[in-house]
User: Fold these one by one.
Assistant:
Number 1:
Amino acid sequence: MKISAVDLFCGVGGLTYGLQRGGIPIAAGIDVDPSCQYPYEANNDAAFVAQDVMTLSARSLRKLFGRADYRVLVGCAPCQPFSSYSHGLSQKRDDRWSLLDAFGKLISEVKPDVVSMENVIELATQPIWRRFLTTLRQAGYNVSVHRVRCADFGVPQTRRRLVVLASLHGEIRLQRGTAATKTVRDAIGGLEQIKAGESSKRDPLHRSAELSSINLARIRASKPGGTWRDWDASIVARCHLKKTGRSFRSVYGRMKWTEPSPTITTQFYKFGTGRFGHPEQDRALSLREGAILQTFPKRYRFTRRGDVICFQNLGRLIGNAVPVKLGEAIGRSILAHLEKVDETAADRKSPKKGKKYR
């Protein structure tokens, strides 16, 4: 049984890496962002194709699969337009909404055996979501939809995601997550201590952003799991004093060692954008810590030796990634389904025991 998969919107390879660990070979990953190419190819046994999915033709996609018994198409269209962190970003101002339609169009034209799509929970409230599911069903797919707690699959985050699995060969479902809940301490408790603005000599990605004097005072006054209400009035931010800012209690917060981290966003390296303060060190998460909380291996390579470390770019790439452990669970589910399909097909082809053929 030869399986070939292609990962649309592949980014730095979180989903690809997880699928490969789950037993699904990846032929190629496709992404419009050229900065994804080095980390994708340096860590995964797959080619990177720098192309906008909006311009990808069905013919080109078929070629990427090559010869295979079963073709698998996976992807996570950019989630910012649908995420709760977008605060009402409109469809008219963001053309990324149309990427999910492009995904559906390619599925209808290429008809891969299995399809998987992962995205934010909020997508399920949008008309484009219902349109995507209708496209799959009209193309003949058996579709299952899962709202998952990533912590159930070994991801040390409170992250919740929407996972779609669809097959032309019958029912397919995501296997149940049975992993024990991982905490922040489990994930990053053993890493070398560093200060704000410093990096590890052993790992250049274990680097934290600098803090202003006021933010240094704020993090020193912060308790794990606490809020800005724990601070002295002299260091409270002006935005918190406004009526609209009083409910944002987790901003400028420290994580707890004994619990999973909050959802890792593209700005996890900033102390002031969420509960991304280290549980005990006076700094925000390092880039490596964010990657580990996304369940990338500790030595996953995001930059070449000697490259300048850009927090904004790497934060975006890491925060946008599919957690590796979730990708692995999706891969195992697809593999189990295809093994069953292939076994059934083989039984149909073989002569039945005791029956004579002339």
Number 2:
Amino acid sequence: MTPVLPGEPDSRFHVIQTPYDDVVALWKKRMGLNPKKSLNEQFGASRPKNQPSIMDCLAYLPNEIISYPDGMKGWYKHAVHAGDELLKSERIDVILSSSYPVTCHIIAKALAEKYHVPWIADLRDLWTQNPYSNHCALRRFAEKRLELRTLGKASALVTVSKPLADDLSRLHIHKPVYVITNGFDPEDACFDPPELTEKFTITYTGALYDGKRDPLMLFEALRNLITDGIIDPDRVEVRFFGSQDSWLFDEIRDSNLNGIVRVFGFVPRNQALQKQRESQLLLLLLWNNPQERGVYTGKVFEYLAAGRPIIALGGSEESVVKDLLNETQAGHYTSSLEDLEAVLSKYYLEYMGTGAVPPTKKSAASRYSHLEMARKFAGVLDKVQIMPHQHSTTVAAHSDSAQKFTQ
């Protein structure tokens, strides 16, 4: 079950699409604001950080209230109504909700309680324990109580790594918590060998976060290697497909890498995948925060499917991403400028010797496909004894796609 999708859903699955009310856009319209523009654009305010200004707090206070517990709350009534109709007309053995948004879990709880159906809550990102959450203290207090009340009714919880599972277990002390990592679509890994870029190209696709997922160390390493004559500036290129943030352009200018680092806007997913596959190296940016040690980004699994070597910057020495790269031999995790310069030099020498950086081995990465995820979800269903027979039916509530884990 999902809000209306931008395209046709996969015909192999029974996908129920429902209307969705954008409550934040409606609030902006009532206040005489442009519903299509962010508060930052219209007020010149930014999301509050460690020391937010008064304008920051005032600008975002209404949004903290209107979008509680998230911006998808306008989907709730439509999804519950559609779920009512489905549960009245068909036999449903289990409900599976997957966040973000957390509204998915609130919908699932309402249906599971009403119809006495077992329910598994899958948290690809944690709820109130999410290190990227920066709400005000009052909302954090209210939301933690909401999480406890909501997930307290679930039969089991699922998340993506053992560190995050440990965090969940400490909060939900009487709930079984299982680990099922993210993965990639096997179809994304089925492609003819691409023609690689002529230059020594390093590609990043997706959003950036100033001070959290920041490429500055890469810029410093490239500047040093160019200055030392190890890398020819005419043969190297760094590409960003995604965010076009002003601070990124400032970092490029301050590093004297104009002409080497190129910033593009967001591109369609198929084009982003192609840019990954043709690149010599792929850049993965992590946040050096102990709370993120158990966080996998969806990007790392896309990169695994692309089959190109990955350079991961930042993050904790205990990061699950570091373990993943070591296990799959898909790239290198670097935590210091010296390490990064050594890794870049190694790859550049390979590139200069053969004209290309060798691809990674896909055999080790295959255990992180969606097929493996589905197998593990089936195991969780068995463990909580909610698959009594072979033809069990699952209802999945998810804001993006209902076909990720059901078939």
Number 3:
Amino acid sequence: MRESRKFIIPTEEEIVKGLTSDIYFFRTKKILEMEKLGDVEVCLELTASAFPSGYTWAVLGGLRDVLNLLEGLPVDVYAMPEGTIYYKYDYYGVKEPIMYICGPYGKFAEYETPILGFLSTGSGIATKAARVRKAAGNKLVLSFGARRTHPAVAPFNAFYAYIGGCDAVSCVKGAEFLGIKPTGTMPHSLMIIYKAIRGDHSEAWIAFDKHVEPEVPRVILADTFDDEVEESVEALKKLNGRIWGLRFDTPGSRRGNFAAIIREVKWKLKALGYDGVKIVVSGGIDEDSIPELAKAGADAFGVGAAIANARIIDIAMDIVAVKKNGTWIPISKRGKFSGIKQVYRCWKCMVDVIRLKDEPQPQCPKCGEEMKPLLVKMLERGRIVEKPKPPSEVRRYVLEQIRKLNL
């Protein structure tokens, strides 16, 4: 390393300088400048090259960082609003644009790499969170993914986990960016210390209740040393009337049938008159396991690695038009559809149709209703003209859309 740093992470200034980009963009920029082609205007189209296996839709994330990155540069940006559901292809099989960037290529070539990184990762996290949200129905979903990703991107992940549908996040900095309070319970380490030093791990529950702010729900970890049923009953007796929920995070090596454990605990709680106590489960939770656990009686799901390590949405950026003598010339590499386009959606059927930007507005091929354009001007010659909505509004927008979709 050329300089001494504590962590292998770039500064904001280094990202703005393009120093996280691929070297060939700098070489391309140099060539264009030397050949007097640096001011040639192009229009770059961003589309999804591939979705993770089994996915038929994705949620657009990462847009606000892209706009901040390009702000001040001589470019126009058209994009779907953040949180929009998008597809790989439209109804007729045409690749669906999620964004356009138009301007002198030599002025922004080096930003292609971070732009794709923001969108691919943001969309991947938001999409997985939306799939988890859809699987959980009306149950609570908590983002516990900070420990399953690099600290430098943990707040970003938490941000888009929330936008995708999580109800709360445990990452402190992520919650700060969202403008909400972080949510979490207690770790096994607290129980172990009390067991070793005081001889009774249940004193940890009492200490938690005594010292943690009163507005924080009392969710007690009840699986550290004893059977989940027995620990739950003991905790309820120790903190009678003050427990909101019980959390089970049993390691896979001794979990057995997690749904059976939940059913047994719920039955015992009902028999003892504690029907209102919630069951929070965590540890290896994913969209495939949620339905069974919800049916067994789980009320909330702490999801970590499944969202934090979500598969990215593979997004590509390609030139589809070049301006020559003041006129946009449609041109693209093979396999791509040239020309600047607009995406139209039927919000009733959630069907999209692509048209060239000068073509007439289409009608829905399913219901015949008028379709609405999705691509909106976000940046005009480097000036932000359409800011992304606050996270809570974007989250509501996502939830409205996924209610209309099948997984």
Number 4:
Amino acid sequence: MKPYTILHTIESGGPGGAETVVLNLATRLNPKLFRSIVLLPPGPWLNPRLKEQGVQVIEVSWKAWWDLRGPWAMIKAVREHKVDLIHSHLPGQNFYSCIAGAATRTKTLVTYHGPVELEWSRNLKGRLRLWFVRRTADGIVVVCDMVRRLLIELGFDRDRIALIYNGIDPAPHVSARTQWLRQELRLGSEEKLVGMIANVRQTKGYDFFVRAAATVCGNMPNVTFLAVGDVNEQLAAPIKVLHQQLSLGDRFRFVGFRSDVADILKELDVFVLASTSEGMPLSILEAMAAGKPVVATKCGGVPEMVDHGQTGWLVPPGDPAALAWAIAELLKDTGRSALLGGRARDKFFKDFTLDGMIERYEKLFLSYLEPR
């Protein structure tokens, strides 16, 4: 019996969390059961990684939500490759996939990764797209219970919504290098490192992270803060101005996008995520897999990942004073930090491994595909 053909599709090539989920699904599904094809716009991050793994990639450019090249290419791909199931990610592509599914009578699953995607649906265009998805999608996947509740409030049928937590591969964190990052940054072994791994975007709360860093640096010596992630220069401009105004200098460093995140995490004393809106951020999972104490904001699906006071510390979004206090407390109390990090690692292996995520998606796909 031939494997089922899955058409994965997303409106962005990343880097980012949703794009990483697509990469993992397209390359890790059981090849005896599933054949993966990915349709997405041209891009320098996700596309080459898929091709390197031998995944067939269909690149299509479209400029606006009403540009029909996207859904038309999807319809063509479904017919050409005899696709059994369409699986899409992010609101624009969820809309397109439902058009293609309806036109070809192909089962369609859509995925929402965070509440900000539903905020984009508040205008007339967004409401129309969401209405169409609600009426036509065979199933909806959410990565945290908070998004599931929002969709139910918006009229989605709760019985069609499946919750599948994101997962990551722990292997890179087991073999990560040690004692090289401080050498690269020319810091002594006594220097404490606090890092945030997130692309510079509006919802990531970098301005609050910078303000918290200034407070901690004003009260504690030998602490360096790192911002690790792709930098959108337009969005980063006011954050860098704030950095200068607070005279942080080399005590707060923007190191840009890095492919050695596991190695960086290995040397952090505290991991931070200061977001104002989230779904289920993979960076927190990476920190948990590395056994690092986490300080994160209580938003989106983060409270489903971090148990306050048990596996990490949660603070209100947009509160740099609370963020600074939590960071300082964990830097001072290394015993407590180690305890939180160890518990976080245990919870990761229980609930958030990549193998577990893939198994849950395979079961979901089969529930829509069998019998053929």
